[in-house]
Amino acid sequence: MRRRILLVAHPRRPEAQHLAGDVAARLHAAGMEVALLPEEAEAVHLGHSPNVVEADPDDPARGCELVCVLGGDGTILRGAAMSRGTDAPLLGVNLGHVGFLAEAEREDLQETVERIVARDYAVEERMTLDVRAQHEGELIAESWALNEATVEKAARERMLELIVEIDGRPLSTWGCDGVVMATPTGSTAYAFSAGGPVVWPDVEAMMLVPISAHALFARALVVGPSCRLAVEVLSDTEGSGVLWCDGARMVELPPGARIDVCRSATPVRLARLTASPFTDRLVAKFDLSVAGWRGSARRNGTGGGPAGAEPGAGPAGVEPGAGPAGVDASPAAGVASATPTRD
After folding, report:
1. 129-263 in CATH: which number?
2. What is the pTM of this model?
3. Which residues are catalytic?
4. Helices marked H in the chain — which ranges?
5. Domain spanning 4-126: CATH superfamily
6. CA distance linking residue 191 with residue 216, whole number of Å
7. Residues of the chain with CATH 2.60.200.30
8. pLDDT, tens digit, for every residue of 22-72?
């Protein structure tokens, strides 16, 4: 049986359109079948290419050994929705800004394709969340999230009155802009922007982070993976709310709505090309200064920064004092902002 790769590309980025054709041609030349969703193939000008086949819109990753994504964190989250529940892991190539979920950068594309062909990658699983919304006992939405589920106010001029519950017990009532319920993967996304902690991806936990709560007790909480979180929009609140899952799937929440969140039994599988520590990823993505570090690598003369960087140099060849190219304030990318935007 011929090996098949599902290719997912940002439909409006000219760079993604060009690189999608290059990746498809390289994989096709290696004897692999490349599948794209029909409308996406047209968007990246591969609708009539002999190098691609159409993926089933209802089950695009069916029969695929891997989902390769070209884009930013928003596109990678879209690819995660296609790969979740299948055996196909997800491999992201960052064409966005920070790209916390990406495993490779655009300049590594040729090597990345070679590694895909050789099946030279490891696979790790990331926790996801099951999300249910009810109103007056009726189920109004059922979804999931890799990064976070957020309950937010629908109108700028109105606060939400929410009551938060953990394991069936009330915790606190908040007048706030919203609440973020996140996985460790999402701790560097919207939860980080709201003041939550950074949690290593291999930690089994969930975070609950209030957004601009008007309360004395309004701290980010880290709870166990078996906890059940719930948020209720109080019936007498003056505003209405919205539920967002990974900033992409939205449901309106009337007063009295209840949102239940728990760990999902279905993870997202990520393909990894390197075994570098998560610390190095934080340093590189957030452009953290490591000047003056006196760790074992420097004592052994192998460099003072992550991945063998020269002493005093910024991560991944960034000049000291310079910010990473193209960084913006996208919560999906994990930088401080109050408004989610995703590539």
Report:
1. 2.60.200.30
2. 0.83
3. 73
4. 14-29, 38-43, 73-83, 109-117, 190-193, 278-286, 296-299
5. Probable inorganic polyphosphate/atp-NAD kinase; domain 1 (3.40.50.10330)
6. 19
7. 129-263
8. 999 999 999 999 999 999 988 888 888 888 999 999 999 999 999 999 999
